[in-house]
From TrEMBL:
Keyword field contains Repressor: no
Cross-referenced SUPFAM superfamilies: N-terminal nucleophile aminohydrolases (Ntn hydrolases)
InterPro entries cross-referenced by the UniProt entry: Ntn_hydrolases_N, Pen/GL7ACA/AHL_acylase, Penicillin_amidase_A-knob, Penicillin_amidase_dom1, Penicillin_amidase_N_B-knob, S45
GO MF term set: hydrolase activity
Class of this enzyme: hydrolase
Species per Swiss-Prot/TrEMBL record: Danxiaibacter flavus
Family membership noted in the UniProt record: Belongs to the peptidase S45 family.
Superkingdom per UniProt: Bacteria
Protein name, UniProt field: Penicillin acylase family protein
Length: 822
């Protein structure tokens, strides 16, 4: 009955979408394909699945070398039993296509700058052609092509990718039109054959999400408005409260590669308060909150004497889910965890011997260089006093219902020219800027994942991660032999202080990346005496590290995780589950004394005082029913606006917002903080004036929330998981879950823990996990959102590596597929 109601709701929603967005006849097409969508034989009705559906099949595929059995457990998690790696990769590709074809295909369309091909130039409030041009100009396809060459030069990586691609295509080739995933029918297009390039594109999309955030144009604008002293106060390097991944006080070896600031940098690059602001072209950014938590505790801190590893990557919350859960068994190896539909291997998981996971490094590896072209043809550009020949890439963007658009992209020694006279929404200064991005360089991330899946101990872990390039990650590890370790691994440019924070001159090679930081400076923490390793996207090292890291990595989750792990003893997996879902707000703990100190209670009205008393009595937890959490969050946003908006509004151009840790640490240590004064008023405001005024202004929003029944944190935050096309009927909205910014349970409105995993490496592995979605990508399936409520309530499922003999006897199996070449 649930599916019936869901499909009826789905039909009404989709009907409105079609009525409002029916494509007009174009070219040789005489009529729109609305009838196809509604067809009883081939339309969306065919996508409804019976609640008791079983997933049985005998698949014959010529690409297989042996026989494979797949058992689907009660949660529709496949347990793959193959006689060799090739067949395991083939079947993983087949299953990804069987259950997530539209998702994996759509994501590669987005990565390749091809959305206009299926969505049209514009629609649903989005400018798809603009988005496509941005990704073409960024060089996503160029980057994927470079990585594909590297991937296919390694025999093992190529074999894995080839087998996976063949498995995807085996499913696509046998797919009847009536069985196309629903979204294909809605958007009126068909699946195309998978390629290894699509897998490379998916991995580059991961690089965009995790290693493309930068504010070079915004920082250049700020540099032009503020003095050097003001700039350092607004955008400091490092934090006083920092508890880095590698502990403070670590003595670093003398750098073998000594980076040299260009001789002309002080006059050319560091031009503070010069009123030479730049404007910024269209530049969508990945969510700066893309991060994660991970930690591992050694046996000296656990009840069993064995390590426990935990990981919860924080990413956008979408349906179909980012992850697909799986067990893969081949002779000599069993691995369980989650992978990305569109690529082989388990990405985060465990095998019979070890467990592994990742958090994002947050390093700035994307910079811009100003290019001086000789003339409007852009055939030559100036570099070290000489004119260099430009090469070009022509990127053809097909547009649904319209003529194709071609981007003629200039390629330089730095990389693709993103902004020039031909690019829509060009920079108002009329100049050209090339993008240097580490993701453009050849790399083979599949190699790392493939080796980790088979790792047997610490040496295998070190070997597996040693070649990983981009997006750089904090790679955590634990083994049944008792080892724990963490290492921030990636290919990092060695930078001088503030290099890459601003736009750089592209005619001078002294501003290039002078080399890659030596491998010995990617410090590995291995079995520290204090008994744990952890990361939560904070800086990896303190500012004594010999190379400039940059950025403004958030410190607070790292602080509270390390505090808890330091205090805990006799740890159990249940303790770790409670820690992963912990809603304590360490940022609020640090802020509360100073906010109380600087609030003038005598200036508050009765209504304001009532809210203030609620805040004062708040327990510092961002639980669902806590009103204090909402008051604090709105108040802090108001303080940030009161403190900085007057200075930032000096320019109409995009400016970087100072981060909350900068505000808090500044008012904690400086009672005369210069930015407390509003430069637009004749009087000189104090911190007390700002904090009190911010609270009074915040009460406007808070009173509305109170009157509408949304002052409790869960209602105010209003978390949800959205379908990739943002269709409400395909989404799970208004979920009751706490957490938020700076909290271990980092659940925001549409962003948060995309997979929670706890692995106890006891003699018999004890593992738990959950993600906010379901194994099927079909909104008409009961397995579409199976795990959402469990995830929201902080519960976990048991994850078990199980033999074929054992699983074949289990009750509640949802089907069995067999694969053979005959």
């Amino acid at each position: 009955m649930r599916v019936v109601y869901f499909i009826l709701s789905l039909a009404l929603t989709v009907g409105l979408i079609i009525v409002l967005n029916v494509p007009l006849p174009a070219g040789k097409t005489k009529t729109p394909r609305m009838g196809y969508f509604l067809s009883p034989q081939k339309g969306f009705w065919q996508n409804a699945e019976a609640a008791d559906k079983e997933f049985n099949a005998a698949i014959h595929a010529s690409g297989l070398k042996g026989k494979v059995s797949v058992y689907f457990d009660e949660r529709l998690v496949p347990h793959i039993y193959a006689e060799n790696d090739h067949d395991a990769n083939f079947v993983q590709g087949y299953l990804h296509a069987r259950f997530r074809l539209w998702q994996m295909d759509f994501q590669t369309y987005a990565a390749a700058g091809r959305l206009s091909e299926i969505m049209g130039a514009q629609g649903s409030g989005s400018d798809f052609l603009k988005i496509d041009k941005f990704f073409r100009r960024l060089g996503m396809v160029y980057a994927a092509e470079n990585s594909l060459k590297q991937m296919e030069s390694d025999p093992e990586s190529k074999a894995a990718a080839d087998a996976y691609t063949a498995g995807v295509n085996a499913y696509i080739s046998a797919l009847d039109e009536k069985d196309y995933p629903l979204e294909y029918k809605m958007l009126d297009y068909k699946p195309e054959q998978w390629t290894n390039l699509k897998t490379a594109l998916l991995l580059k999309y991961m690089s965009y999400d995790l290693a493309a955030y930068e504010q070079d144009f915004e920082m250049t604008n700020a540099r032009s408005i503020f003095t050097a002293k003001q700039f350092e106060k607004l955008y400091p390097y490092g934090q006083d409260s920092l508890d880095p991944i590698v502990p403070k006080g670590t003595v670093f070896a003398k750098a073998g590669l000594v980076v040299k600031k260009p001789l002309n940098a002080d006059s050319v690059y560091f031009t503070f308060n010069a009123d030479t602001t730049k404007s910024q072209a269209y530049n969508p950014k990945p969510d700066p909150a893309n991060g994660s938590n991970n930690w591992a505790v050694s046996g000296i801190k656990t009840a069993s004497g064995k390590p426990i590893l935990c990981n919860d990557p924080h990413l956008g919350l979408n349906l179909p889910s980012l992850w697909y859960e799986v067990q893969i068994s081949t002779p000599g190896n069993n691995v369980y965890g989650v992978g990305l539909p569109g690529a082989p291997n388990v990405i985060i998981g465990f095998n019979d011997n070890v467990a592994f996971g990742f958090t994002n490094s947050g390093r700035d590896v994307r910079d811009y260089y100003e290019i001086t072209f000789k003339d409007s043809t852009m055939q030559q550009y100036l570099y070290n006093g000489e004119w260099q020949n430009t090469t070009f890439r022509d990127e053809v963007i097909k547009v649904k219902g319209a003529v194709a658009d071609t981007e003629h992209i200039a390629m330089t020694v730095w990389g693709p020219v993103m902004y020039d006279k031909n690019y829509p929404n060009i920079l108002k200064d009329g100049k050209a800027y090339a993008c240097r991005w580490k993701a453009h360089d050849p790399s083979d991330e599949l190699k790392t994942f493939g080796k980790l899946d088979k790792a047997k101990g610490y040496d295998d872990y070190v070997d597996a991660i040693s070649t990983f390039s981009c997006p750089a990650q904090n790679m955590i590890f634990a083994s049944k032999s008792g080892d724990i370790a963490i290492r921030q691994q990636g290919s990092f440019p060695a930078k001088w202080r503030r290099q890459g924070d601003f736009l750089m001159p592209g005619n001078d090679s002294s501003y290039r990346w002078q080399g890659i930081i030596g491998d010995s400076f990617n410090i590995t923490l291995h079995n520290p005496t204090y008994g744990f390793v952890s990361s939560a996207n904070q800086y990896p090292y303190d500012t004594t590290y010999p190379y400039y890291i940059g950025g403004s990595n958030p410190p607070y989750r790292g602080i509270i995780i390390n505090r808890n792990l330091t205090q805990m003893e006799n740890i159990t997996p249940e303790d770790m589950q409670r820690l992963q879902t912990n809603n304590y707000n360490i940022f609020a703990e640090m802020a509360k004394p100073v906010l109380l100190k600087y609030t003038d209670e005598t200036a508050l009205t009765d209504t304001e005082r009532t809210l203030f008393e609620t805040y004062k009595s708040w327990n510092l937890r961002n639980d669902i029913d806590e009103k204090g959490a909402t008051i604090f969050a709105v108040w802090v946003d108001s303080i940030m606006a009161e403190m900085y908006d007057d200075e930032l509004s000096q320019s109409p151009l995009p400016m970087p917002q100072p981060v909350q840790s900068t505000m808090l640490e500044s008012i904690l240590k400086d009672s005369s903080y210069v930015f407390a004064d509003n430069i637009n008023t004749p009087q000189k405001e104090t911190i007390k004036d700002i904090v009190t005024a911010a609270f009074k202004k915040a009460t406007t929003e808070l009173n509305i929330a109170e009157k509408t029944g949304k002052l409790a944190w869960g209602k105010f935050k209003d978390s949800g998981i959205r379908h990739l096309l943002r269709i409400p009927a395909f989404s799970r909205l208004h979920l009751p879950i706490g957490g938020g910014n700076h909290i271990i349970n980092a659940t925001k409105q549409f962003h948060g823990p995309s997979w929670r995993m706890v692995v106890h490496l006891n003699d018999k592995t004890e593992a738990y996990g959950v993600y906010p979605g379901g194994q099927s990508g079909n909104p008409g399936s009961k397995y579409y959102d199976t795990f959402v409520d469990y995830w929201a309530s902080g519960k976990y499922y048991m994850l078990s590596i199980i033999s074929e003999a054992e699983i074949s006897k289990q009750k509640g199996l949802k089907g069995k597929m067999t694969f053979s070449n005959s």
